[in-house]
Amino acid sequence: MPNLRVRLGGWIREGLGEGLAAALPQHCFVCGARSGTWQFCTDCSAALPRVEVPVCPVCADECGGGEVCGQCLLSPPHFDRSTAALRYAFPVREWVQAIKYQARLDLARDAVRCLQAHLAPADFDCIVPVPLHPVRLAERGFNQAAVLAAPLARSCGKPLLRNAVIKDRLVPPQAGLDREARRRNLAGAFRAERRLDGLRVLVVDDVMTTGATLNELALALKAAGAAQVSNLALARAMG
Ligand SMILES: [Zn+2]
Ligand SMILES: [Zn+2]
Question: CA-to-CA distance for 115 and 127, rounded, in angstroms?
């Protein structure tokens, strides 16, 4: 019963992770040095790949002067804004993969801290984590986007709409596909389960790659009446 074991481990870690991890001295995820209550030591924390270059406010990709990029002008996405806390590069990539594929939900606590620094509660009414297909959810035992979104919603007192949208089509892996192929691959993957009339939605995800998934999700949210869709991702693959 590997799935159940992973899931139980996930729940236990999710439940106990915050309190225990805060109480125990941490070791740096990168170099193993003592790192206080943070999962990166001072040096490795300073070296995290932050988003320092000007980025497009719509898709959060690198863009010379920080204005809306050519891609977003040419083919405007269904979402209105995107923010990423970090770039998807070493050691953020390894950090995200450990959370997602090794069920290291204890490592999600500091990801939430990173996201919190970019949270503007006045700008949204509710939070939607990017949904996983039920088959993927059963395999993994948890939805990493919901693991990040739940404490964010608690911290700002906004509702977390876990089931507002479902992913009702199992999409083949996106890795290795170009932008257009990803878009085709995802068409119609999400379906809203309730009306969201007039709501400003904040979508939370772990990684934003080309934005194809978030674009398809925003389409479903807007079709359900959402007035505005903003994305907040822990990490963005640039370029
Ligand atoms: Zn370190
Ligand atoms: Zn853009």
Answer: 13
Say which ligand is closest to the CA of 57.
Answer: 2
Q: Are strands 165-167 and 190-192 parallel, antiparallel or unpaired?
A: antiparallel
In terms of residue numbers, what domain contains 91?
49-236
Is there a domain that residue 42 lies in? no
Residue 197 maps to which CATH number?
3.40.50
Q: What is the pTM of this model?
A: 0.88
* Ligand number with the minimum distance to the CA of 40: 1
- Asked if residue 5 is part of any domain, the answer here is no
Q: In this structure, is residue 18 part of a structural domain?
A: no
Q: State how many domains the chain has.
A: 1
Q: Which residues of 211-230 are buried (b: 16+ CB within 10 A; e: fewer)?
A: bbbbbbbbbbbbebebebbb
Tens digit of each residue's pLDDT (9 = 90 or more) over 167-186: 988 887 777 778 788 878 88
For 57-90, write each residue's pLDDT tens digit: 999 999 988 899 999 999 999 999 999 999 999 9
C-alpha 210 – ligand 2 centre gap (Å): 10
